[in-house]
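To the structural biology subgroup,

Please find below the input and predicted structure for HEAT repeat domain-containing protein, which we are adding to the shared reference set this quarter. The sequence is reproduced verbatim from the submission form. If anyone notices a discrepancy with their own records, reply to this email rather than editing the shared folder directly, so we keep one authoritative version.
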Amino acid sequence: MWAGALMLLGLTGCGASPAMRAADRGDWAALRARIAEAHRAGKLSNADATDLARRVAKREIASAPPSQAVARVHDVSGCARELDGVLSSRMDVHDDAGAEAALSRIDAGELGAGGMRSFTSDASDAWRAVGVRGLTRKKDADARIAAMLDGSPRVRRSAMQASAEAASDGDIANVDREVEQLATAARVDPQGIVRSEAVRALARIGGEKVVAKLRDLWTNGDDGVREEIAVAWSLPNVYSHGGAAPLRLLVAAEHGPGALEAAAAAARRKDVEPPIRASSVALLARTIAKGSRRDRLHAMAMAPTSEPDILDAFRQSAKGDDPEMEIAANARLLESAPDREVAIKALELRALPAQDGAPVDVQRQRLGGRARSALAMVGHVRVQAWIERDLQSPDPSMRLSAAAALGALGRAARGAPLLADADPEVRTRAACTLIMASRLKSSIR
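Predicted structure (tokenized):
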């Protein structure tokens, strides 16, 4: 059965290299050996590795057993554009994985959601979700709102996304009715992701009525909803219709994830009112220096390094006695020219791998991986050999992080051994990582 699927998708060929043929038949031991041989000979280029990655990803999608099919399609969502052909073929199978492939193609802009409307009454909730994504026209309003009440959370989420797209296109027929239903969903839907999508759709609609609804939702919303509302306050459709006032109050008097999201969004706006910017910068700097562990890491990830007070807070955290905070702070200080060299030296010390034979320290390995990745993202090639050691880590997440770091260094081919990993999730996600590294290189050109 697997061989038939592979032939159908055109994954085999008489002119294929031994490595390609090994990938086609799923002979991971042979593929591993071929990659090692090519590396020893210095004959595996980034382009060759990308071609091999496409082959591996296509095979995984085509041959995954039913219990893993959805996961394998989801693993390639980041490189769906490059794998559009195989995802299109996977849609021919009317199962959950086929529906996941359709949604990936829609998200990648390779499939028009409007052509999927015929599935809005499908017996499968996965395929109904695909159909509902196309309900973006004015005349679809009744069907779209009805889908917001569907028994399946994936269908309800698609309905919220369709509403957001309809708002962007100016195709909402009855705005008041749409706003009411979205606000209700944001308040009572049992699924957090659906509540968040409802808030995003409200922000796309914007206007004074939406601002009023968002104020009400903030009062009893959980952290997820509040974070979405906080971002919404700074968006043009909301900020200019009364969102500036709650944004000003939020960054001046609140704390926690929602307030931090609002502060970061406000600090990024070029036209934000000076008092709001000042309060936002103060909140972010204060949190980076003295907040809870969760809030400090949250603020560090979002705060702009263009603000002097925030830079000072990063410098303070980089000199503390908490290794996790030190690494996070120095990773951001790499963006500051005056601080870059000092940050590189500090991260190099954390990035050093443990000596052979040393006791295993999982926390130290994890933090070292973060430091190595941070240095890779700025092209610091001295860490390449250390990163390659992570390809042998027993932790799948560290192996995948190493592949991404090698791609950032422009050495994606060195991550090719993961294409023959024993774990199908690692193989597939590593393949997508190599494909995305190739895309990034092309975009830089």
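Summary notes: Confidence is low (pLDDT under 50) at residues 1-15. Residues 214 and 229 are 7 Å apart (CA to CA).

Regards,
Lab coordination
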